């Protein structure tokens, strides 16, 4: 399923449940937001997106603690979790997605090679509690391919969580 197909399915789910979504993107640089806003009427369920490419932006815009970035690195599940939580709080939404990774072709390390992408998802349940999920994936390909795969995975991951 393509990212636009995931977006269409997600739109149907969000509309039917009356939910609002916000995003924080780093390595995808707004590609997920662009995919979502390709759909007419997306303003009914999509609140906003943050492109927090730098560590400073993650801290200033989303409240990610500097110490968390220093300890784990910007490409880590703890940072992805903090980005998603900060996005949900700042945007006042039911759902948030965060993406941080190494799209390449440079910037990779032995521990975090090019293609490493960390995701965070936050869903507010019916009781008002947040369910947080994080995952790290390693994608193959060039920069464009890694960003595209990350976009698809971010949307598919949220759909999977909403269906559980």
Question: What does this 3D model show about the protein?
Answer:
- The longest helix is centred in the last third of the chain and has 21 residues, at 143-163.
- Helix 2 links the parallel strand 1 (21-25) and strand 2 (46-51).
- The mean pLDDT is 96.
- This protein has one domain: Alpha-Beta Complex (Maf protein).
- The protein contains six helices and five strands.
- By secondary structure, the chain is of the alpha/beta class.
- Helix 1 runs parallel beside helix 6.
- Strands 2-1-3-4-5 form a five-stranded mixed β-sheet, with helices on both faces.
- The chain is globular, with a radius of gyration of 15 Å.
Brief overview:
The chain is 44% helix and 22% strand. The chain is of the alpha/beta class.
Indicate the CATH topology: Maf protein
Count of strand segments? 5
- Strands of the widest sheet, in order across it, are 2-1-3-4-5
The main β sheet shows up as: 5 strands, mixed
* Rg (CA only): 15 Å
Tag the structure with descriptive keywords.
Maf protein; 164 residues; single chain; five-stranded mixed beta sheet
